[in-house]
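batch job 7 of whatever, protein = PLL-like beta propeller domain-containing protein
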Amino acid sequence: MTNAAAALTHSVSVTENSDGRLEVFGLGTDRALWHVWQEKPHSGPWSSWASLGGVLTSSPSSVDNSEGRLEVFARGTDNSLWHIWQDRPHAGPWSGWASLGGAITSDPAAIANSDGRLEVFARGTDNALWHIWQEKPHAGPWSGWASLGGEITGDPEVFINSDGRLEVFARGSDNALWHIWQEEPHAGPWSSWASLGGAITSDPAVVASSDGRLEVFARGTDNALWHIWQEKPHAASWSRWASLGGAITSDPAVVDNSDGRLEVFARGIDNVLWHIWQEKPHAAPWSSWASLGGSITSDPVAFDNSDGRLEVFARGTDNALWHIWQKKPHSGPWSGWASLGGVLLSDPLAA
């Protein structure tokens, strides 16, 4: 499959290799997993697209093991969770595909625990949140699937608190934001589900501020960007919801700049990429919304390069994967948009 023929789903997954090179994963028109990567840390050129095989029905979720090997998870045609991994840190060859079982109805969300063990979350056929985890860091065997209950209506989002405890966020059947968390670092038991209120119309995007507090962003019923945050690091007290304005038509993507300021990206009603950022680390005020141009037809995905520059990926009107990046760490100017080729799909379940 050449660059011109490569095809991906609406949502790619981006991860940094242990040597500092970004790698992007997505589905092809053949429903195989395809990837493209930087050939040098934090810079071009990029490789050609290459296939990792498989027959998949969800967007992928990629994560790095504690020893530096990337691992990718996705739903198969049997609705089970499947995974594939690098056999060596930041390099091929890759393993074959292996099933982790289960019956999932959402994109998976994978993360590394503070002790190095990977854990994956997904919605089950009962709309509850289910999870599965490595029993040893960067290795099998894996646990069986276990339910965390709840009733969620979107893809879960997971992040790690500054004290090492995982916390999962998802939209509930009432369109409020709900969350559940480990009561001890990298271990059970888990809390009960708790509501953070709000009325959201997108999947949440979660990030940690430079002072250790989690902050969650989502689109509201007015299509503005709303956010809510922990009032203290890894604590149970949360702020009220606050609006950052704008008129967005995608899930938001949030990332922290190398100087500690959060920055959020979303598609506007004009299909352009827009962004807004904190003017001070982990604090208000926020900037006004600003356009980064382009003409995108997917949710954006944002990631930070190993040299501190942010980079954003999205599907263009030609269905190729496009990207744009900061020319300097934590500041403008931004590059122009550039194509990485491919033909992106809008729906991983489309016939």
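notes: DSSP finds no helices and 36 strands in the chain.
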